[in-house]
Amino acid sequence: MTTDAREFCPNCGDPIESDPGEREPLPDSAGLRGKEQKLCDSCYFERFDLVDAPDRIEVRVCARCGAVYRGNRWVDMGAEDYTDVAVEEVSEALGVHLDARDVTWHVEPEQVDQNTIRMHCHFTGIVRGTAVEESVVVPVKISRQTCTRCGRIAGDYYASIVQIRAADRTPTAEETERAETVAREIVASMEATGDRDAFVTDVSETDDGMDIKVSTSNIGKKIAAKMVEEFGGSYSDSETLVTEDEDGNEVYRVTFAVRLPPYAPGEIIDLDDDDGGPVLVKSVRGNLKGTRLTTGEYYEAGFEEGDAPEARRLGRIEDAEETTLVTVEDEHAVQVLDPETYRAKTVARPDYMDPDAEMVPVFKSRAGLHVVPEDGESGGTGE
Q: What is the pTM of this model?
């Protein structure tokens, strides 16, 4: 007695001659659960789809900054057009049948209009030893919206404000320009790491300094700390309750008040109770440091005076004028032409002055006439 080991296709009834292990089971939807029934090649390929593709894909793009919404967040792509983004989205959305082997494929984008790209996708592969191929067309719709970041910027959102002020004076143009540069450098470095919550909301000059509004309190703190590091002084912070979020949590806005020292680099001051002559301020980080205009010697304020010794402001190094060096009298004195009266006048000879120069910069004030360093620089800072 012999037994016929052949199987029959449950769909058409034709015998299946090959090894049953080489045939795929009929899907459970055929109602043959419990038996490992196999389809013949003809019936299998009638039901077979090499590619599973969506009918349509929508790509959400920020109309302001060009970011693309992927997963559950906005991502900066830096693309001038979105063809590559569309190709990537379609590639992730397509599914290839698990039975297929040696699959190759390519995509040809067709730009229909500004907001529509038609993706022509062609696949080839091997299934049950048979070469198969399939083509699908997936329309991609570019939906232009506004990302969370741009929405906040447009709404003038900010979480902290940095106030740049100075004691007994208005911050210089150099200080306020540097403050804005620092703010934008900090934001740029954070953006480079993928932080989309970092941005400068507004920079505005005020009667007594500058206000910088930024998106997070962390950025505000970094700006304040950097300004104190570079220009001296100190800063303080205070919180103000502004609202509650959707979960009922209190939302605070932080103000960082930067207080720069009373004297800035480049200022010329006349110290009280001191007969050493005016000082050109070189640094106010920690204690005030500078150069004596009478001798060129290094000056540093005492610990108790810090960055704010008692002094009178005489002007700034930019107020100096070029004049003729008439003669060098000795190691301590030279004659120069007074830039106002054009008369020769004997003044102190600081060690930074070039005795062979024909012209020298001089600064005239109520403290007298003094030769100042070229371009405000001098080697006598002691730092």
A: 0.69
